[in-house]
Write a structure and sequence with these properties.
With 261 residues, the protein is of the alpha/beta class. The protein is built from six helices and 15 strands. A seven-stranded antiparallel beta sheet has the order 4-3-7-1-2-6-5.
Amino acid sequence: MESHQVRILSNEKVSERYWHMIVDASDIKENVEPGQFFHFLCSNSIYPFLRRPFSVYRIDSDRNTLEFLYLVKGLGTKKMTELKAGEKIDIFGPLGTGFHLKESDSNILLLARGVGIATLAALAYKAVGKNKKVIAILSARCRNDLLAADYLTSFGVQVYKVTDEEGTSDLHKVKELINQLLIENDIHALYTCGSKRLARLMQSIGKREGLWGEIALEENMGCAMGVCFACLCHIHDGHEAKSARVCVDGPVFPLEQVILQ
Ligand SMILES: Cc1cc2nc3c(=O)[nH]c(=O)nc-3n(C[C@H](O)[C@H](O)[C@H](O)COP(=O)(O)OP(=O)(O)OC[C@H]3O[C@@H](n4cnc5c(N)ncnc54)[C@H](O)[C@@H]3O)c2cc1C
């Protein structure tokens, strides 16, 4: 992996809190996999000093572009919104371990909360390309935040939307929805990102149903190269718990292995 100066093709506000950036990836020779991320130098000034990590939302190999969907949160992402098409941005990557798709799994279920869909969308696209049936539950505060729903539907994902504003996103209701989907579909694998609460639900359902799965974790990150240990999480290793670095050991981990606090 290395640092790339890529040209921004577009950087647009897509809802009240979310922006979408497309960059020219023709100089990036490494293979980029769903679940992997890039570490962005958000501005040309000294602040913010630390880079910020963003998962690839869409990998378009025909156009040689990479797309990122980002929630404007603090200084780094605010600075990113000031970048214009035609300017360059320094992105370091691709980093981390991506998602795995098993040949034998023909139906998969995705559960994303908020911007977690930015991480799962590329997986959904790849899975549909491999003729898998993809069902996605998107959970968000409000309908305006269900950004990727139309995009996912456009390439054949069966999308279910739940929101806080409509009172459809609480744990009990999401559990009922998943149980119903498991009855109606022969689900083989579970993938999740964006909420530890929902991930715990997926873990318990995976255990109950004997299904394997994966989770993409988000932790505050420093170097993203495994050196600073800022992004530690805890995973089961046999009967013991051990620390793992989200940046290099993840961000994608086996669902049953992570200890979600
Ligand atoms: C693997 C991964 C993939 C991600 N993918 C996406 C995505 O696709 N879309 C998306 O919207 N979000 C994604 N995120 C979350 C995203 O990286 C954060 O929302 C983003 O870093 C926020 O940056 P900010 O500067 O706007 O916010 P801030 O809260 O200001 O800063 C965020 C982080 O910067 C670092 N930081 C800032 N100041 C300091 C300090 N003084 N000391 C140490 N550290 C500091 C910390 O890591 C801090 O948590 C991902 C996170 C990870 C780990």
